[in-house]
TrEMBL record, chain A:
Record bears the keyword Membrane: no
Native source species: Esox lucius (Northern pike)
Listed GO biological process terms: fructose 2,6-bisphosphate metabolic process; fructose metabolic process
Protein name: 6-phosphofructo-2-kinase domain-containing protein
Lineage of origin: Eukaryota, Metazoa, Chordata, Craniata, Vertebrata
Residues that hold substrate according to the record: R241, H242, G243, E244, S245, D246, L247, N248, R291
UniProtKB/TrEMBL annotation, chain B:
Encoding gene per record: PFKFB1
Limits of the 6-phosphofructo-2-kinase domain: 70-290
Residues holding substrate: R297, H298, G299, E300, S301, E302, L303, N304, R347
Subunit structure, as described in the record: Homodimer.
One Pfam family of this chain: His_Phos_1
Alphabetical GO biological process terms: fructose 2,6-bisphosphate metabolic process; fructose metabolic process
Cellular-component GO terms for this entry: 6-phosphofructo-2-kinase/fructose-2,6-biphosphatase complex
Role, per record: Synthesis and degradation of fructose 2,6-bisphosphate.
Lineage, uppermost ranks: Eukaryota, Metazoa, Chordata, Craniata, Vertebrata
Active site per UniProt: H298, E367
Protein name: 6-phosphofructo-2-kinase domain-containing protein
Taxonomy, superkingdom: Eukaryota
Stated family: In the C-terminal section; belongs to the phosphoglycerate mutase family.
Length: 499, 510
C-alpha cells in the first residue's frame, strides 16, 4: 500500500516513482508434512496479490507429481532411497529455476517456495541461490506437535490429494504418517543461535507463539503482521449489501440515501435469516452510510461502523445515473470501461484505492470469527475478490446483487461460498464489462441498467405507463438526433423482447 | 437545534427512547445503559440537549443531521488493557512505554504511563545511592511495594473513572512473584494483561542508555557523570540476582512479547485481541537507529494565494522558488540515504520534482478532503455554510466536512504512513497543512485538542530528531515569502454568531 506509484490518471511522471521494495523477496516455507505450509503459502500469496504485490507460489510437491506420474507409497520419501532423492532434488531445482524466471523476468515481486526444506543443507542451497540472484530470503517455519491438529490437516487436505486418489482413508492416513516419519529424523529446525543471521518467523502450534528474527524490510514486516493475525478456528463470514436504497431505485450511483420500502423489507428478512442461522458470537459491521446502518438496525445485534466500508467515492459522478455520466463525462465513462480497476473518478476513488482502504478491514476480518459485513457493491466486490482469490481484472465485475447474502466458509485451501437470496425483489445494479470498442457499444451498455429498472418496475407496477416514461430517457441517449415516433415504437418492441 | 454544549455522546439508535422537537430545539432521550463497547458514551437517564452531530439516530427525520462525529474506526476493545513492562534497568522500558503510549493515544486509544520510578521519587524525596535497591534492604522493599500498590490503585482509577483504555505499568517487574500479583490484580478487576519484556546484554547499548537518560535523571542531579554511571551499574546488579525472565514453559499461558537486542528478535506469545495485535505490530517496527525526519508543506500554491482551501492546483512562482531552495537546503544537509515522500496532489509532486531525487507518492498523504467546501475561501464558507463553519470551530478535530473528512479520519488514514516512518531512517515528507499537523502531533505527542491548531507555515522545514524520550525539533524557514494559511480558533464559536466574528481570524489573501 505504499504503492503510491499507482497508475492513476493525473499528471504524474510515473517513471520517477520508486518502489518500496527494491529486491524481490523469496519466502521459503520450512516444516514437516501436514504442518500447514501449503495453507500458509496459498493464503499469503492471495493476500499479497490482493494488496497489489505480484506474488506466486511454487509448490515442490506439484513438481514432483509432474515428474513421477504415479505415486506408489511413502517409500519414495525414505532418506535412503537414492533415486527418490535425486528426483526430489531435481524438482526443487526446477522450481527454483521457475522462481528465478518469475522474479527476474516476469515482474514478480514475491515468490513463495513451498516445500519441507527441513535440512540446514537445503536451506543453505536456497540462500546461496537467492544471494546469487539478488533476492531477499524470508523463512516461514511452522512447528506443531499437536496430534489432533496434524490428524485434522491430513484429513482435510492430504486424503483428497492426487497422491491418494486410489486409496481408502485408512491406507492413506497410514501411508502419510509414515511419510512424515521419513522427514523427522533429518529435521533441523531453525535455530536461535545457528540461524541468527537469517530472517524468519517461526509459527508454533498454529499461532499460539511466534519467534521473529531479523525482519529486514517493509514487506517482511507486513508478512509477519499478516501471519500473526490469521487463525484456523472454524467460522463463517457473511457478506451482503445494504437493502435497496432510494437512489438504487432511481438508477443513481453513490450518494447517501435511505432504504426504499423493499430495502426495509430485506432488512427485516435479514434479521430473521441471521436469527435462524443461530450463529455464535456474531459481530456485525456496517459502513458509515445511512443505508447500511438502517439495514443493520433490523438485525438487532450491536454493530460497529467502519468508515473504511463506505462505498467507492464517485467524485464528480456522485448521485448521477449512468446515462447522465455518459452525457456529461463521455470520455471518463469510456476510460473507466477500459480499466475499471485502476480508473479513478475525478475527485473520487478507484477500486485500487478501495483495496488499500479496506486492508485494515481484511486484517481484522482475519482476526475475528463469525462476522456479518453489511456494505456496498464496490466494497463487497473487493472483499469477495480477497476471499475468492480473484484478479484485479475480474474484481470490478464480480456479481454482488442486492438482497443476497454470501456465506463464506474457509475449507481446505480455499473458501466455500453459499449464495442466499432473501426473496425480496430489488433492482439490478450490475453493469457487465462492455465489449472492447467505442461509441455505440458503450451506448448499448448504458442502456442495460435502465432496461433492468424497467423490468423490475413493470413486474410490480402497471408496466405501460412507466415504460413510456422511461423510454424517452435512453432513447435520447442512444439517438439524440432522431425524433421519429415510429422508430421509437419499433425500438420499444425490440427492448420488450430483450427483457 | 442550536447547541449549548459539546458532548461526545453517541447514542446507538437501539437505545434511543424518543426524539422530539419543541421551541427550544431538538431533544433526544436515551436509555441508561448506553455504555456499550465500541461507543464513547455517557450514561444519561434524562433528556439532554445534544449537538446536531452527536448521533447515530437516523430515524430522526431532521435533515441537517449530516455531519457526524463518529470515529472512522470501531474501537474493537472491550476490557481495559494493562501493559506490564519487564526488564532490568536501562533496557529501554521507559522509552518503549512512552513511545507506545504516544502512538496509542494518537490512534485514539486513551493510554497513560504509570512509571514506578516516579512514584518512588515522590515517596523518597532524596535518592542517596544504589543501596536503596539492595535485595536485603527491608525498609526500602516496603516502600517499593507500597509504591507499586499505589500505582496499581491509580491505574484502577484511570480505567474506571477517567475513561482510560490502556495503562502501561512501567517498572522492572523482574520477579515472578511480582508478575503473579499483577496478574491476579488484573484478573480481579477484569483487565487484560500484556507483558512487554526487553532483554539486552550488549554492554554498549546499555552504556549508551545510561548516558542518554539515566545520568540526567533527578536521581543523579548532584553527581558527576562517572559517579552516576558507576552507581547505576551497581543498581542493575541488585536486580540481576533475582531476575527471572518470562519463561517459555512456565509462562506459556500469559500474553507477552519479548524483545531481544533492541529488536533483532521477538518472541510473541498468545496475542489475545486487536489492540495487542496492533501493539505487537508497532513494537516490531520501531528502532533506535539515529535519524531525522523532515516535514514540510508543498510550496505556496495558486489556490493558497487566493485564500482558497483544498483543490489540486500547481505551485505559484514563489512556490517554485521555495522548492528550488528546498533542494539546495537538502544538498547542504548532506543526508545519508534520504527517502522523499509526497502526496498524489500536484503541488507536492511539483515541489519534489525540484529536488532531483526519486520520490514516492502516497495517496494517504493527500490533504484533508473538505467535501462541499473544497476550493472555497473562508468568506465563502461563512456565506454558504455558516452553521458548518461554526460547528467546525467548536470541535475542529472531530468535525467532518459534509461529503468530506475530519482530522480524526485523517489520523486513521495516516496510520500506515506513521508505521512506515517508524521503520525508515532519514525521510523527507512533502505534504499539506492538515496532514502535517497530524504527523507533527504524533511526533511531538500533542493532544487532539491541540492538533488542529499546530502551526505549520508554508516554506518552512521542520527537522525532527529523536532524542532521549522525545523529539528535538528545529524550525527552518527557507527565506522565501508566502501567504499565511493558519487560522486560529475564533472567540465566538456559537452557531448564531455574527459573520464578522467568524471571519476575525482568517489570514490575508489576494
Amino acid at each position: 500500500m505504499m504503492r503510491g506509484s499507482s497508475r492513476s490518471k493525473s499528471t504524474q511522471n510515473l517513471d520517477r516513482t520508486v518502489c518500496m521494495t527494491n529486491c524481490p523477496t523469496l519466502i521459503v516455507t520450512v516444516g514437516l508434512p501436514a504442518r500447514g505450509k501449503t495453507y500458509i503459502s496459498k493464503k499469503l500469496t492471495r493476500y499479497l496479490n490482493w494488496i497489489g504485490v505480484p506474488t506466486r507460489e511454487f509448490n515442490v510437491g506439484q513438481y514432483r507429481r509432474e515428474c513421477v506420474k504415479i505415486y506408489k507409497s511413502f517409500e519414495f520419501f525414505r532418506p535412503d532411497n537414492e533415486e527418490g532423492l535425486k528426483i526430489r532434488q531435481q524438482c526443487a531445482s526446477a522450481a527454483l529455476n521457475d522462481v528465478r524466471q518469475y522474479l527476474a523476468d516476469e515482474g514478480g515481486q514475491v515468490a513463495v517456495f513451498d516445500a519441507t526444506n527441513t535440512t540446514r543443507e537445503r536451506r543453505q542451497t536456497i540462500t546461496a541461490f537467492a544471494e546469487q540472484n539478488g533476492f531477499k530470503v524470508f523463512f516461514v517455519e511452522s512447528v506443531c506437535e499437536d496430534p489432533v491438529v496434524i490428524a485434522e490437516n491430513i484429513v482435510q487436505v492430504k486424503l483428497g490429494s492426487p497422491d491418494y486418489m486410489n486409496c481408502n482413508t485408512e491406507e492413506a492416513m497410514e501411508d502419510f504418517k509414515k511419510r512424515i516419519e521419513c522427514y523427522e529424523n533429518s529435521y533441523e529446525t531453525l535455530d536461535e543461535v545457528w540461524d541468527r543471521h537469517l530472517s524468519y518467523i517461526k509459527i508454533i502450534d498454529v499461532g499460539r507463539r511466534y519467534l521473529v528474527n531479523q525482519v529486514q524490510d517493509h514487506i517482511q514486516s507486513r508478512i509477519v503482521y499478516y501471519l500473526m493475525n490469521i487463525h484456523i478456528t472454524p467460522r463463517s463470514i457473511y457478506l451482503c449489501r445494504h437493502g435497496e436504497s432510494d437512489l438504487n431505485v432511481k438508477g443513481c450511483i453513490g450518494g447517501d440515501s435511505g432504504l426504499s420500502p423493499r430495502g426495509r423489507e430485506f432488512a427485516k428478512y435479514l434479521g430473521k435469516f441471521i436469527e435462524s442461522q443461530d450463529i455464535s458470537d456474531l459481530k456485525v459491521w456496517t459502513s458509515q452510510m445511512k443505508r447500511t446502518i438502517q439495514t443493520a438496525e433490523a438485525v438487532s445485534v450491536p454493530y460497529e461502523q467502519w468508515k473504511a466500508l463506505n462505498e467507492i467515492d464517485a467524485g464528480v459522478c456522485e448521485e448521477m445515473m449512468y446515462e447522465e455520466i455518459q452525457q456529461h463525462y463521455p470520455l471518463e465513462f469510456a476510460l473507466r470501461d477500459q480499466d475499471k480497476y485502476r480508473y479513478r473518478y475525478p475527485k473520487g476513488e478507484s477500486y485500487e484505492d478501495l483495496v488499500q482502504r479496506l486492508e485494515p478491514v481484511i486484517m481484522e476480518l482475519e482476526r475475528q470469527e463469525n462476522v456479518l459485513v453489511i456494505c456496498h457493491q464496490a466494497v463487497m466486490r473487493c472483499l469477495l475478490a480477497y476471499f475468492l482469490d480473484k484478479t484485479a481484472e475480474e474484481l470490478p465485475y464480480l456479481k454482488c446483487p442486492l438482497h443476497t447474502v454470501l456465506k463464506l466458509t474457509p475449507v481446505a485451501y480455499g473458501c466455500k461460498v453459499e449464495s442466499i437470496f432473501l426473496n425480496v425483489d430489488a433492482v439490478n445494479t450490475h453493469r457487465d464489462r462492455p465489449e472492447v470498442g467505442i461509441s455505440t457499444k458503450t451506448h448499448r451498455n448504458v442502456v442495460a441498467p435502465v432496461i433492468n429498472i424497467i423490468r423490475n418496475i413493470s413486474l410490480t407496477n402497471d408496466g405501460a405507463a412507466l415504460v413510456s416514461h422511461f423510454l424517452p430517457v435512453f432513447f435520447y441517449t442512444l439517438f439524440p438526433d432522431l425524433g421519429d415516433a415510429c422508430t421509437l415504437l419499433f425500438f420499444a418492441n425490440d427492448l420488450m423482447q430483450m427483457m | 437545534m442550536y447547541l449549548t454544549q459539546l458532548s461526545c455522546v453517541v447514542v446507538p439508535p437501539s437505545l434511543l427512547k424518543c426524539v422530539y422537537t419543541n421551541d427550544e430545539g431538538l431533544w433526544i432521550r436515551a436509555s441508561a445503559d448506553c455504555n456499550q463497547a465500541g461507543f464513547r458514551v455517557e450514561v444519561e437517564p434524562q433528556a439532554r440537549r445534544f449537538t446536531m452531530h452527536s448521533h447515530q439516530a437516523l430515524q430522526v427525520p431532521v435533515s441537517p443531521l449530516q455531519t457526524s462525529r463518529r470515529s472512522s474506526v470501531p474501537q474493537l476493545t472491550n476490557s481495559p488493557t494493562l501493559i506490564v513492562m519487564v526488564g532490568l534497568p536501562a533496557r529501554g522500558k521507559t522509552y518503549i512505554s512512552k513511545k507506545l503510549t504516544r502512538y496509542l493515544n494518537w490512534i485514539g486509544f486513551p493510554t497513560k504511563v504509570f512509571n514506578l520510578g516516579q512514584y518512588r521519587r515522590d515517596a523518597v524525596q532524596t535518592y542517596k545511592n544504589f543501596e536503596f535497591f539492595r535485595q536485603d534492604n527491608k525498609e526500602a522493599m516496603q516502600i517499593r511495594k507500597a509504591c507499586a500498590s499505589n500505582a496499581l490503585k491509580d491505574i484502577c482509577i484511570y480505567f474506571s473513572k477517567e475513561n482510560g483504555q490502556v495503562a502501561v505499568f512501567d517498572a522492572t517487574n523482574t520477579t515472578r512473584e511480582r508478575r503473579v500479583s499483577i496478574v491476579s490484580f488484573a484478573k480481579e478487576k477484569g483487565y487484560k494483561v500484556f507483558f512487554v519484556e526487553s532483554i539486552c546484554d550488549d554492554p554498549d547499548i546499555i552504556a549508551q542508555n545510561i548516558t542518554e537518560v539515566k545520568v540526567s535523571s533527578p536521581d543523579y542531579v548532584n553527581c558527576d557523570k562517572e559517579e552516576a554511571l558507576a552507581d547505576f551499574l551497581k543498581r542493575i546488579e541488585c536486580y540481576k540476582q533475582t531476575y527471572v525472565p518470562l519463561d517459555d514453559e512456565k509462562d506459556r499461558n500469559l500474553s507477552y512479547i519479548k524483545i531481544f537486542d533492541v529488536g533483532s528478535r521477538y518472541l510473541v506469545n498468545r496475542v489475545q485481541d486487536h489492540i495487542q495485535s496492533r501493539i505487537v505490530y508497532y513494537l516490531m517496527n520501531i528502532h533506535v537507529t539515529p535519524r531525522s525526519i523532515y516535514l514540510t508543506r508543498h510550496g505556496e500554491s495558486e489556490l493558497n494565494l487566493l485564500g482558497r482551501i483544498g483543490g489540486d492546483s500547481g505551485l505559484s512562482p514563489r512556490g517554485h522558488k521555495y522548492a528550488a531552495s528546498l533542494g539546495s537546503f537538502l544538498k547542504g544537509q548532506n543526508i545519508k540515504d534520504l527517502k522523499v515522500w509526497t502526496s498524489h496532489m500536484k503541488r507536492t509532486i511539483q515541489t519534489a520534482e525540484h529536488l532531483g531525487v526519486p520520490y514516492e507518492q502516497w495517496k494517504a498523504l493527500n490533504e484533508i478532503d473538505a467535501g462541499v467546501c473544497e476550493e472555497l475561501t473562508y468568506e465563502e464558507i461563512q456565506e454558504k455554510h455558516p452553521e458548518e463553519f461554526a460547528l467546525r470551530d467548536q470541535d475542529k478535530y472531530r468535525y467532518r466536512y459534509p461529503k468530506g473528512e475530519s482530522y480524526e479520519d485523517l489520523v486513521h488514514r495516516l496510520e500506515p504512513v506513521i508505521m512506515e516512518l517508524e521503520r525508515q531512517e532519514n525521510v523527507l515528507v512533502v505534504c499539506h497543512q492538515a496532514v502535517m499537523r497530524c504527523l507533527l502531533a504524533y511526533l511531538l505527542d500533542k493532544t487532539s485538542d491541540e492538533l488542529p491548531y499546530l502551526k505549520c507555515p508554508l516554506h518552512t522545514v521542520l527537522r525532527l530528531t529523536p532524542v532521549a524520550y522525545g523529539c528535538k525539533m528545529e524550525n527552518i524557514f527557507l527565506n522565501v515569502e508566502a501567504v499565511n494559511t493558519h487560522r486560529e480558533r475564533p472567540v465566538n464559536v456559537d452557531v448564531t454568531r455574527d459573520p464578522a466574528e467568524a471571519l476575525k481570524t482568517i489570514p490575508d489573501h489576494f
